[in-house]
Structure formats: structure tokens, C-alpha cells
Specification:
Blueprint lengths: L2 E3 L9 H9 L2 E7 L10 H12 L1 H7 L4 E6 L12 H12 L4 E8 L5 H16 L4 E4 L5 H15 L6 E3 L7 H4 L5 E5 L8 H11 L4 E4 L11 H11 L4 H17 L21 H5 L14
Helix pairs in contact: 2-4, 4-5, 8-9
The protein binds zinc ion.
Length: about 300
């Protein structure tokens, strides 16, 4: 069975992790741009981070036969930092058209502040402009209200729900997200968020439609093998093979395919179109060959 981990921060992981993931069947991953722990003090460090996700990290993954894609955004936490927030928004159009970018994300709420609301909306507008899906983080604190506010903001924005993946769901938020038509992500994280047994129960109750699981592995205590471990738990619980394949491969492939990329590596990528000024000029630089030379990206 080929596995997809659609939310993992490989920039904070080692090559041992890549080797173990490949051995466990992980064939494709999506790495969302996020908060890196230490607050950033310059917009330029975001630019280098975006470049490393597009170039170096993709190259590292390829050494283990893993297809690496990324989502780019101003993360929810740093939306509250006026020293960098608007500058990152201004930077994004230059990067959203690059090959390997499969969504705007992760965006959403952290503390549910006014600044977060402003940049959350602004980045949904960017996604609409660049014909990209969005990956939405939901807050750890006051999660239910944060998810309700997220769904309201998504509805108001007019973005199609099939272009929206709302992540880090639990028993309380999943019944809100699924009826909205958005996709529902679940982060299997040691001790917090969600574990294998609870995930099995959710799949038994809700089935596999628009359901996605990920490890959300990062610098914290986390496990890049949570997707294969959850597959094992689902097999042992008697969940049908077709449902499992749908959750750990077909769903993430089909969701991120909406960006124009081919996350499963098959078929020609649909050329993305955009209404953004300067698209034609920038498209000349999107032929992809530069990413065969990671240091030139
Ligand atoms: Zn994350």
C-alpha cells in the first residue's frame, strides 16, 4: 500500500526519518510552511525558508524516493507579528506559482485575534487568485469555537469547500467540518491531538469520504511514522482495505491535485492559470528544471 503523509515538517527531521518513512511505504508528503519555534525578526528569513522547502527539502526527500510538495503561507501565529506579517503577504505571490506548491497554508487561527482574522482572509483571497486549495490549521486552545469561526470565514470568503482542507480535527470538530463539504485532516500526535485508537473509532463512525490523516511531525515530540502505524491499527480493527487506501492515498492525492500538480506522479500536470498580473512573465520560470538542481532554486 502506498502511503501519503499530507502534513509533516521535514525541515525539522533527520535523514533517518526519511529512510524509515520510505521503508514504511510513505511515497509522497506535503510540508506546510509553519512557525519554526523561534519568532522570526525579518521577512527575508521567510523567503529563505520558502526556498528551502521548494529546493533543498524536495531534494532530500527525492534521495529516499519520496515525492515532496509544500504549501506556503504566513502561519497563524506570526500573523500577530507586525514586523513581518504584511511583508510575507507581499512576498507570497512570487512563490505561490512555483512548481511543488500545492496549496496556500497553513493558515487559520491560533489565538483567534483580529490580526489573524485579517491575514486568514487575505490568504484565502490569494488562494482564489492563484487557483490553489487552502490548508487550514485549527487552534489547540478553544478549538471548537476556532473551528466554528473558521467555517464561517470560509463560507463568507466564497471559496469552494472542496478546495479547503481543515486540519487537526477531533471528535468535537469533525461533526462540524464534514457537513460543510470541506476535507477533514487529523494529526496523529503522541500524547496530544489524536491517537490511533480514537482515529479508528472516527473512521468506523464517519467512513473515509474527505477524511485525511497525517503525522504533523515537527520539532516537538512527534512521530513521522504515525500514518503507517494508524494504517496498521485500521487493518487490525477490520476497516475495509478500500476505505484505508482512500484515506491514506486517494484523498490527499485528489485534494492536492486541485492545485494542478500530480501528487501521485501520474498524468500530465494541469497547467495552473491565474488572474494575477505578471503571470505570463513568471510562468517562463516555472518549467521545473531548476528544481533538478536544488542549490539553484
Ligand atoms: Zn503543522
Amino acid at each position: 500500500m502506498m502511503l501519503f503523509d499530507p502534513h509533516i515538517h521535514m525541515t525539522s527531521r533527520t535523514t533517518d526519518d526519511y529512510a524509515a518513512m520510505a521503508a514504511a511505504g510513505i511515497a509522497a508528503i506535503v510540508e506546510p510552511a509553519f512557525w519554526v519555534g523561534q519568532p522570526r525578526t525579518h521577512v527575508g528569513t521567510f523567503e529563505d525558508y520558502f526556498l528551502s522547502l521548494l529546493g533543498w527539502e524536495r531534494f532530500r526527500a527525492s534521495q529516499f524516493g519520496i515525492r515532496h510538495f509544500c504549501t506556503l503561507a504566513l502561519n497563524p501565529k506570526e500573523a500577530n507579528n507586525p514586523r513581518v506579517a504584511q511583508g510575507v503577504i507581499d512576498l507570497l505571490p512570487r512563490y505561490l506559482e512555483k512548481d511543488g506548491v500545492v496549496a496556500v497554508g497553513e493558515i487559520g487561527f491560533d489565538d483567534q485575534t483580529e490580526a489573524e482574522t485579517k491575514y486568514f482572509s487575505a490568504q484565502i483571497e490569494l488562494a482564489k487568485e492563484f487557483n490553489l486549495p487552502v490548508l487550514i490549521h485549527t487552534p489547540h486552545r478553544d478549538k471548537k469555537r476556532g473551528t466554528e469561526r473558521t467555517l464561517a470565514l470560509v463560507r463568507e470568503s466564497g471559496i469552494k469547500p472542496e478546495l479547503v482542507l481543515i486540519d487537526h480535527n477531533n471528535e468535537e470538530t469533525l461533526p462540524l467540518v464534514l457537513p460543510s463539504g470541506c476535507w477533514a485532516g487529523h494529526s496523529l500526535y503522541p500524547k496530544t491531538k489524536m491517537d490511533e485508537e480514537r482515529m479508528v473509532q472516527l473512521v468506523k463512525q464517519y467512513g473515509g469520504e474527505r477524511m485525511v490523516i497525517n503525522s504533523a511531525a515537527d520539532w516537538g515530540v512527534s512521530d513521522p511514522l504515525k500514518v503507517p502505524q494508524t494504517v496498521r491499527a485500521m487493518v487490525e480493527a477490520g476497516i475495509p482495505h478500500s476505505t484505508i487506501t482512500r484515506i491514506v492515498w486517494d484523498n490527499p492525492v485528489n485534494f492536492f491535485r486541485q492545485s494542478g500538480a500530480a501528487p501521485d506522479g501520474t498524468g500530465p500536470a494541469r497547467r495552473r492559470t491565474t488572474t494575477h498580473d505578471g503571470h505570463a512573465r513568471r510562468h517562463l520560470f516555472r518549467s521545473g528544471h531548476i528544481y533538478n538542481r536544488p542549490f539553484a532554486a
